[in-house]
Design a protein that fits this description.
Distance between the termini of chain A: 25 Å
Structural class of chain A: alpha+beta
Shape of chain A: elongated
CATH topology of chain B: 434 Repressor (Amino-terminal Domain)
CATH superfamily of chain B: lambda repressor-like DNA-binding domains
Order of helices and strands of chain B: EHHHHHE
Oligomer: heterodimer
Radius of gyration of chain A: 22 Å
Strand content of chain B: 5-15%
Strand content of chain A: 5-15%
Helix content of chain A: 55-70%
Number of domains of chain A: 1
Largest interface: A-B, 5 and 12 residues
Strand order of the largest sheet of chain A: 1-3-2
Radius of gyration of chain B: 11 Å
Helix content of chain B: 55-70%
Largest sheet of chain A: 3 strands, antiparallel
Chain lengths: ~190, ~70
């Protein structure tokens, strides 16, 4: 294939994203460890519990409340140091899994772009890569379903399905089928004497 | 596939080697091997025409339908 700048740029971007994911995850883990060792350092880190659930459907909120302490104006402020240990671990595992699956998605996407650049577009590997991306996106969809933030003075536990990720997953599976048909056509063409 | 290519039978009858046939037909040895080993998914009329001319035979001498 002739010099394709767009594909080269895409591969470089994928590599940058993968490296930055590792760096961000390490920082995130560092913050998680430091938060448990020294929670007082995070008493000014405010937490917005009223996050907008954009792009979700079938939302079910189990509970969403703020306990108000009488006579205290600061009672509604949810800071990171007040987060309960169960919620802390839940969100750490959830975010770690999110990082891992997103990292794998980018890795597979990079492999597809590299094969397209090497003029090996319609190959079985790409079909498998698209299927893997679809599977990872389904996992991400399941992981992001549950919101579990519990603080000493408030909580938010909800369950919602993000249709955006589900649509992306569906597109991935469709692309896998498109590439499978392409692979069949190419093989047929190759085996025509 | 139910279509069997009997190229080797005709080649043996005509005492012709694979490389010789490939040269006469004007296709690569690899492609002719695909055809001979029943790996081909399709055959062009132009190839069939060239093979029949080189082996002095009919298409039916090379191709056979066997019910699976």
């Amino acid at each position: 294939m002739k010099k394709n700048t767009l594909l080269k740029v895409a591969i470089v971007i994928c590599k940058i994203i993968r490296v930055s994911y590792i760096v961000i995850f390490l920082i995130f883990t560092g913050v998680f460890v430091h938060l448990q060792m020294n929670p007082s350092s995070y008493e000014k880190v405010k937490f917005n519990i009223e996050t907008v659930d954009d792009g979700t459907f079938l939302q079910y909120k189990y509970s969403d409340y703020i306990k108000e302490k009488e006579g205290s104006s600061q009672s509604q402020e949810l800071t990171l140091d007040k987060m309960k240990i169960s919620s802390l671990y839940f969100n750490f595992i959830k975010t770690s899994l999110l990082f891992w699956f997103t990292f794998l998605c980018v890795k597979e996407f990079q492999a597809i772009i590299e094969s397209v650049k090497a003029v090996k577009t319609f190959q079985e590997n790409n079909v498998l890569s698209f299927r893997k991306i679809g599977k990872y996106l389904l996992f991400i969809s399941v992981i992001t379903m549950f919101t579990y933030y519990t603080f000493k003075n408030g909580a938010r536990i909800s369950c919602s399905v993000s249709y955006k990720i589900l649509v992306l997953s569906l597109i991935s599976y469709i692309m896998a089928e498109v590439f499978k048909e392409g692979n069949n056509l190419e093989e047929g063409n190759k085996l025509t004497v | 596939m139910a279509i069997i290519v009997n190229l080797d039978v005709m080649m043996a009858k005509r005492k012709m080697s694979l490389s010789e046939l490939a040269e006469k037909v004007g296709i690569t040895l690899a492609n002719l091997s695909i055809l001979k080993n029943n790996k081909a998914k399709a055959i062009r009329f132009s190839t069939l025409d060239a093979v029949c001319e080189a082996l002095d035979c009919q298409p039916a001498d090379i191709l056979e339908y066997r019910k699976e």
